[in-house]
Amino acid sequence: MRRNTTKWLGALIVLVVLAAGCGALRQSAAERKAEESRVAALVQQKLDARKYTIKVDFMNPTRGASRNVGGEGYSLTVDGDKVNSHLPYAGVSTSVPYGGGKVLTFVDDIDEYKELQAKSDRRVFVFTTDNDEDVVTFEVTVFDNGQADISVRSQNREQISFRGQLETEE
Length: 170
Hints:
The protein is an alpha+beta fold and about 170 residues long. Helices cover about 30% and strands about 40% of the residues. Strands 1, 2, 3, 4, 5, 6, 7, 8, 9 and 10 form a 10-stranded antiparallel sheet that branches. A hairpin with a 5-residue loop joins strand 9 (about 145-155) and strand 10 (about 160-165). The longest helix is centred in the N-terminal third of the chain and has 48 residues, at about 1-50. The model has no long low-confidence stretch (mean pLDDT about 85).
């Protein structure tokens, strides 16, 4: 009789632990959904205000290998009508000043800024700047989770693209 009671007690303990685990999973899923909603709202708020910074961690040049550039402080910042580009470059240049010039590291005014039609989980912005050396066009795609893709076209350099994360910390 004692063995039978021990088996039932063991089975009851296992059931209680499993039930508690299922409740914890449900709670973490709800918390995860709330966090996703919070991040999406913050991303939309920053994009609407045109005040955002994208930390770049990956570059994909037209020629050569794609590579990780995280941890080196590369970023693209839009603050109203100004752009602060601190991006790496790898590729062929056709016409640049002696010494290489500014490349993709400059602060300048945005000449034209527009939003393109996109899917419901992302927003796409295209803006152009003339940094006295080159006319540079940025196409920035930002997803609800803060992930971002940046494509950079220039008159004097090959196209290059980047991947990064929009800063969502206050």
